[in-house]
Amino acid sequence: MARDFYSNPSFGTRPVTTKIGKTIMSANFTKFALGLAVALPTALASFSATAVEAVTIRLAHNLEPSHVVAMALEQLGDDLKEMSGGKMKLRIYGSGQMGGPRETLEMLQQEALDMTKGSASEMEAFESTFSVFSMPYLFRDKAHFHEVLYGEIGREMMALPKDKGFMAIAAYEAGERSFYATKPIKSPADMKGLKIRVVSTPTTNRMIELLGASPAPIAFGEVYTAIQQGVIDGAENNEPSYYHTRHVEVAQHVALDQHTSVPDYLVISTATWDALSAEQQEILMKAARKSEDYQRELWDAEVEKSIKLSKEAGATFYEVDKTAFRAALQPLYDDAAADQNKNAWIQRIEAAGK
Ligand code: GCU
């Protein structure tokens, strides 16, 4: 369960190094408390790894340590340290200990945190363009998805929220999301009357409603208990998240309908980014891009492994007719056609790689 960060005593009074290198005692949780802690600034004549200013960057996310995105973030920390000659450090707060992505993205805006991981759906509340990733069956195949995510379109999108307080500096594959529930879902008709947890956005809520089900806006870390207690019937996610959250124990029927491909992003506060020197930015960007490659290489095997382990834990996976789901969800495309910005991005995405 996501803990209330502000009431966590371990984040109370503590010495904080400010940007001008003075150590102060912060009685309250201020923007300095989790902000960028930079030691004495030194004038740099020229770039060399050992001459980089010391900096500790704080990153919070809501994944378990075994998740490949969490592993990529650990790797990012190791690479940053190595590439900067030990000067750039990443302090990671995982497992939702600072709250869910909504909270951590807001903390980036308030300059109370430096970096977080947010899925495209979670970013949608701040920059509506990310809603395109919640459009069902938008990508023809994996190659098309990769072309968009890591190509010109994806990179352009990553910079969009910069004037809203943060921007993405790495994109991580998160496979396809499929429905799972306490009862079998073999066709759209089986969705009728079910309560399904989604990362709540206008697009995901409408998607669930079009299938005759009700959307439940529950935090990722609370889904297990909600299913176990019968508050909801199921949820939707990729296979690694289904397995690592142990949702497999409480909702054993998975429809492989693969309705959306919603990526994860490594997100940095604009204030933190701007406070970094050009050298620090360059190192961070290099390490971030390296973490993309690292995560992407692990992903497919992780999906296979998660399916195998889920089956061993009692799950049944159903191959379903995706065209039936796509047909039921057509109104989402009709709605999008009336939204100029969204429609323009959808068209660019559809044309990509052709
Ligand atoms: C996936 C995704 C996360 C997201 C989660 C969710 O696991 O990788 O970024 O938070 O789904 O459904 O909340």
In words, what does this structure look like?
Helix content is 39%, strand content 19%. The protein is an alpha/beta fold. A hairpin with a 5-residue loop joins β1 and β2. α4 crosses α5. The structure holds alpha-D-glucopyranuronic acid. Alpha-D-glucopyranuronic acid binds at residues 62, 101, 119, 174, 199, 220, 237, 241, 264. Alpha-D-glucopyranuronic acid binds next to loops.
Provide a quick synopsis of the model.
This protein has 354 residues and is α/β, with parallel strands linked by helices. The chain contains 14 helices and 14 strands. The strands form 4 sheets. Strands 3, 4, 5, 6, 7 and 13 form a 6-stranded mixed β-sheet that branches.
